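Cont'd.
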Amino acid sequence: MFDLDLWREIFQSISKNKLRSLLSGFTVSFAILLFTLLFGIANGLENTFNSFFKDDAQNSIFIRPGKTTKPYKGFKAGRDIQFKNEDYDYLKEHFGDKVQYITSRVYKNLSASYKNEKSSYTIRAVHPDHQYLEKTLVYEGRYISVKDLQENSKVIVIGRLVEEDLFTKTIALGKYLNLGGIQYKVVGVYRDDGGDNEERMIYMPITTAQKIYGNNDYVDQINLTYNPEMDFDQALSFSNLLTKKLKERFNVSPKDQRAVRVRNMAEASKGINQMTTVLGILVLVIGMGTLIAGIVGIANIMIFVVKERTKELGIRKALGATPKSIVTMIMLESVIVTALAGYLGLLMGMGILELIGDGLKEYFITNPSVDTGLIIGATIALIIAGAIAGYVPAKRAASIKPIVALRDE
Amino acid sequence: MLEIKNLHKSYPIGKDSLHVLKGIDLSVQAGELVAIMGSSGSGKSTLLNIIGMLDEADEGEYFLDDVPIKNLNEKKAAQYRNKFLGFIFQSFNLIAYKNAVENVSLPLYYQGIGRKERQEKAMFHLGKVGLTDWAKHLPNELSGGQKQRVAIARALAANPKLLLADEPTGALDTTTSCEIMEFIQQLNDEGKTILIVTHEEDIANMCKRIIRLKDGVIMEDSFVTQVRASQYV
């Protein structure tokens, strides 16, 4: 039921009473503006926290060897601990039921060249599971495979930026890249959300690296993810158990903190999760407060508006306006003013976030924005609020007796 | 046309109540031009408000065009007002942000008449009051007499059975008052039934019948020889 005449009446009333419409709109615009900014900034903070962990699986455990700091069982302090393939096998064998993915890592820094382009890159020699641990997204070709490991294949998977740097005129997939004098075939190209550094890496089979560079079975680091069904406490006790077992295995004092370092991401991410939850609740409370203040504001102004229009409404009633038509008119006017003003505030807020968003990175705010769901929700909330804010005064206006209204000089 | 029998109305004042109308009997035929006179407090405005369905009587009967006006809900009252009555007020009561033709077409809007027809009818009635050229002007751009003429055009727009005028010349100077009265007389000549509340003898004498109220009862009800307003203009 679209009543064009009714809309004409309402738009005339809004546009001919600019100051009144502006006043009622301003409150709402301002409330929504604040609301949007607040949510945008909170989202930005959350984005920053999340980006710290984005490139790695949240259930990761990193194990690195170090130097002993305490003498133990006849060994001196200051001894280097070196992981080997057998340690990887040990973990896989003894904790297989608790481990989801596991990989060793060997680091190398090598200069790479293709035709005239040359640059130096970090090489990570890994097991195939590494792809899942690091959340590597191969978009061309494939990742390192078990077969590559068995055959010590000279194959590599390169980051998006490596391809951009070196393969300026052609695509990298299938080409041979010179790494420290040896030709490797590019079998895959990947993306990574962890940032530019993560996309300037080159992955190769761990066996190939061990054979070519040193001919040993040394491992620099072992990464694993635990079974995601474990809760936080289980994950913590699992990493404690790992620490204990590895210290025993390398004859390291249980009190030595530096010889075997086990870092559990669950600990770090739990803290962050708690913080973002608290932040979210805080923002929600403040945001709702702002919104409610805006709604109360518009309700106030609507009461004033109805008071101001008492005479007009009285005239309309004397001329034959039914109470229903008065209520409809006031309410629709309120809804339209609220919705338009709210939308304006929303657009302004989003515009401001867009403008200043990039400048806030140093304050730990990344990409501050509000999502579509929130926008739709806020708009609906506004329309409902406008209706409620309009309804009470409208109802009152409709019940005013025309003589009372007309006497009001 | 209009039948009122034993009409009572009182207003509560604190614990007491003020008995404003104490049994009014009144009968008005179609085509009459009636002045209701009385000092302030005599109940003349209350009577007009009840006739105008802006207020309700406590007791008594009221028939308008043989329709009993009783226990009306707001919606029904609004519809009856729209259908039966045209109002002319002392303070004109035009809507300030609407221009002359929009003001005139407002009762037609509440009758649910289409925009185009509304516009045509409103222009016709504005023409009748001689304000065609002022159709697009806002009320504050019009003189008092012009405003009242717009108000009369508005009252006529819905083609009501009865015109009610509450001190229609109260805010106007003598010359303009006579112009307006001349116009009202013309309308009456064309057959409109009109009730005017006034406290000015001059104005009352321009009507065909004078009803004098005092303390809520009709003191005098007499037919008079009408003084034509045109002779003063």
